[in-house]
Each structure stands twice: as structure tokens, then as C-alpha cells.
Specification:
It is globular and about 55 Å long. The protein has a single domain, classed as Metallo-dependent phosphatases (Purple Acid Phosphatase, chain A, domain 2), CATH 3.60.21.10. The strands form four sheets. The protein has a six-stranded mixed beta sheet, covered by helices on one side. A five-stranded mixed beta sheet has the order 4-3-2-1-15, with no helix packed on it. By secondary structure, the chain is an alpha/beta fold. InterPro entries: Calcineurin-like_PHP (IPR004843), Metallo-depent_PP-like (IPR029052). This is Icc-related predicted phosphoesterase. Pfam families: Metallophos (PF00149).
Amino acid sequence: MRVHVVSDVHGASDALSRAGDGADALVVLGDLVDYVDYRDPAGGILGRVLGPEVSAEFGRLRTSGGRDELIRFVREAWARVPDAPAVVEDAVQEQYDRMFGALTAPTYAIPGNVDMPRLWPRYARPGLTLADGRVVEIGDLRFGFVGGAPLPPGVEPREGGPWTPHLLRAADFTAAVKALDRVDVLCSHVPPAVPELAFDVVTRRAEASSAALLDVVHRDRPRAAFFGHVHQPLAPRVRVGRTECVNVGHFRATRTPYVLRW
């Protein structure tokens, strides 16, 4: 069997259409949406709707500013757009039409933290498995999937803004992870809570990770744990016991899937 794995596609539909070439299956670990393009401030939903200056300032604040300052800046920027939630949803819908249209069969997909999973069911079709929260057999291996990203303990999801990231309460994310049963390959958007995997050398901070995912690695001892989310990780892979924990890469930048063979 040969399975290709990608994450953090962020609008790269042309490359996504080729990601499954030569594979028996394609696994997509989330972040299909291109919300903000850090390399091109004029790109992404933020740059196209609010302008490159707003997008560039968002990138600066995310790297060097505080979380509250970033949230306040984004809210003020979107407040200038009439019916901003509808504008964002239309932009996301347009991207999803291209992203899901580019997927080859069979594909197993979960959402990342910038995705809008409530829109995904309309794209369900034969050959496309919306795998979040499920254990699926691919070949003779059990793949366990959990999407989104956890919030810190005690932090509630934000509501009411034009764009709400797919961030789950810590307890809800932990419950979804622990419900996965006897996995041979663990698939998530965020990494297990291993410092070298979670730290981004460009943003200079630890991105979201999950102790529950690490617990499953210790519990089930899968052959591999695949994830993305951290675009420039301090370490792209770390072995934990017998499990190879692998950041499959920032697909928008690399255009190359990770290849699993067995």
C-alpha cells in the first residue's frame, strides 16, 4: 500500500489535484482554507477582502504581538465590512469549491483550525471520507483521525465574529482523541505535545499541541503519528517509543505529499 499525506494546503488547489498521483489513498489533515497569506499580504481572504496592509499587520501581530491585541485588531478591521460573516463564508465557500473539487478518490479528510467544518457535509461523495473522530481501515491498518485544534484549558471558543477558527474546548478535544480505539496510524491536525514538534522557529512560539494525542501514542504505540499545523517546526519528526511522529509539511509551500508505504 502507498498512502500520501498532506496538511496545511491553504488554497493550493492545483498542487492538491496532483497530491494523490500514484497513491492508493490520499489523507488530508486540514487547513484547506487560505485565510491569511504570510508570504503575500495581498493573498488569502484577509488580504483580498481587507487589503494587504491589514493582512501584513495581522502577520506582524501574530509573530510579535499579544493575543488580545491581535483579536482586537482583527475585530476592528472586520467591523468596517458590511455583513462581514456572509462575506467570509462566501469566500470560504469559493475556496472549498476548488479544494474539494481537486481531491482524488479515495481521500480521507479532517478539518484544521482555519477550516469551517459545518460546510463540509455538502461535499461528501463516494470516494471522499469525512473522517474526523473516526477510525478507518486503509489496507490492513487502522487510521484514527481527529481534526481541529484544542484551546488552552479553561478558555472558551470565541463566538460572534465574522470568522471563527475551528478551536475546541480542551476537554472536548481530549475526549475526541481518547475515543479513538486501537489505532495503527494516528492522524491529527495538531502535533502531540512534544516541545520540539510544537515550536515554530519563525513565529518563535509554541503552537497548539495535545497531551491527549501523546497519551494515545503511549497507549497504542502506533507505527506513526501524522500531523501538520506548525509550518516551520523546530523538529519535523521525533520518535516516541516505537512511534515516528511526523509533521507532514506545509503543503502550500512544499507542494509535495508525505509518502507512507507498507
